[in-house]
Design brief:
By secondary structure, this protein is α+β, with helices and mostly antiparallel strands. It is built from nine helices and twelve strands. A five-stranded antiparallel beta sheet has the order 2-1-5-4-3, sandwiched between helices. A five-stranded mixed beta sheet has the order 7-9-10-12-11, with helices on one face. Strands 6-8 form a two-stranded antiparallel ribbon. Helix 4 runs antiparallel to helix 5. The longest helix has about 70 residues, at about 160-230. It is rod-shaped, with a radius of gyration of 46 Å. The two termini are about 65 Å apart.
């Protein structure tokens, strides 16, 4: 099965992320809509029942007025006949469920009246037809001291259905607009969130390609030297020369693999930083002592011009590695009879070590690029030194950044380059230096 191209994989991931984002938001909106619907439905039902209870109270009041006026002489208008409540059917029933006002009633009204306990209320929902549902509220009350009557009020729940339909329409429209906005915002967020992923994939591919290119040369040299040495019998001196060349190339290959592993662990966050209180000036002194022999062999002078105490909180091993990288670069690109000067101290709350060489210098265009992996400056190394893999400054920059510091490259006067490693200075008591 062939591998899916990176661009296709990224596009697929974008579509899937956008789809999942939309599905998640749709599910959330759906759950919110169901919850709101059930809550509002319960509220509407409670309001309808309260309305029916108020209407029932009016029927009871009119019924009592009617009983009081029953013995009056002359023309008296029945209080129940005068009572009108919009969208409500009003009934006055006897204790056994017989209709009093009006004189006839639907079977479901009679059934509700008969089911109402004495001195209590009853709420019931009755489906009359497939598309019509009634809500009935009945209440038993006493008139004339001992006589029970039952007041019944009926409402068609179509008004609730209309409210539900209006509510669902409004929420559906709002949800549709919300989903469209979410789709647009989700695409923007997915694009932005995928940018680091695409950049990481691009860098990883470039890193792998560059690493393969850098590893191919020493491997080819090793193989060629070994094959040439084995083509025919040779004397001991020739074999020794071939083995020395293989050993030198193996050492270079080992260093390259070590740098690649360090950067890989750094990218994966697997290279822990163990900061402790340490003395930057002591590390510089130790590093200069180690590098001075290399400088002497190359015909260079290496001198510490400024030496001040500089306390930092850092990983000593990594910090020394960064200093050695800067010193090695200075030695590599400085011609014979050149000079390398080192300054260490504290300025404005920052500890620094500045390494200045008298080499050809770095152009403005290369000053930022040289920190990229496998990028070499335009200037050739000093005669007798092989060009590096272009990983040293990348490692030094990572070490500086991991310690909340930085590396600055500036032009020296009258020629050359000054590489300055800057770190936050640590405060506290200092032992005798």
């Amino acid at each position: 099965m062939s591998a899916i191209p990176r661009s296709t994989a990224v596009r697929t991931a974008r579509r899937q992320l956008t789809r999942w984002y939309l599905l998640t938001m749709a599910l959330m909106l759906g759950l919110l809509g169901v919850g709101l619907f059930l809550t509002i439905r319960q509220q509407f039902q409670a309001e309808l029942d309260a309305s029916l209870a108020r209407a029932t109270a009016e029927v009871i009041r009119a019924s009592r007025i009617r009983d009081l006026e029953a013995g009056a002489t002359g023309t008296v208008v029945d209080a129940l006949d005068e009572l009108r409540i919009p969208d409500r059917s009003l009934y006055l029933m006897s204790a056994d469920g017989a209709p009093i006002r009006p004189t006839d009633a639907e079977p479901w009204v009679v059934d509700a009246a008969r089911r109402t306990p004495a001195g209590a209320t009853l709420d019931v929902t009755t489906e009359v037809t497939n598309d019509r549902t009634l809500r009935i509220h009945s209440e038993s009350f006493v008139v004339s001291g001992e006589l029970y009557r039952i007041a019944v009020v009926v409402a068609d729940e179509v008004e609730l259905e209309e409210q539900y339909a209006s509510l669902i329409t409004a929420f559906g429209a709002a949800a549709l607009v919300a989903l469209l906005l979410v789709a647009l915002a989700g695409r923007i967020l997915v694009d932005r969130s995928m940018e680091p992923v695409e950049l990481g994939i691009s860098r990883m591919r470039q890193f792998m390609a560059d690493a393969a290119h850098e590893l191919r040369t020493p491997v080819a040299v090793l193989r060629t030297r070994a094959e040439v040495a084995l083509l025919q019998p040779r004397d001991t001196a020739t074999y020794r020369e071939a083995l020395e060349g293989i050993a030198a190339e193996s050492e270079r290959l080992s260093g390259l693999v070590g740098d690649l592993l360090l950067l890989a662990h750094a990218d994966a966050g697997e290279r822990p930083i163990e900061p402790v209180a340490c003395h930057l000036d002591d590390l510089v002194l130790d590093s200069c002592g180690a590098a001075r022999s290399l400088a002497t062999v190359a015909g260079l002078s290496l001198e510490i011009t400024t030496f001040e105490q500089a306390d930092v909180k850092a990983d000593p091993a990594l910090l020394r590695q960064a200093i050695m990288i800067l010193l090695d670069n200075a030695i590599k690109f400085t011609p014979p009879r050149g000079a390398i000067t080192v300054a260490v101290g504290v300025m404005q709350g920052e500890a620094y070590v500045a390494i200045t060489d008298t080499g050809p210098g770095i152009s403005l265009d290369d000053r930022d690029r040289v920190f990229d992996r496998f990028v070499r400056g335009a200037a050739p190394p000093r005669e007798g030194r092989q060009p590096g893999a272009g990983l040293g400054l990348s490692i030094a920059q990572w070490i500086a950044t991991a310690h909340r510091g930085r590396i600055e490259l500036t032009a020296a006067t009258p020629a050359g380059t000054t590489a300055t490693l800057i770190l936050p200075a640590a405060s506290g008591p200092r032992a005798q230096h």
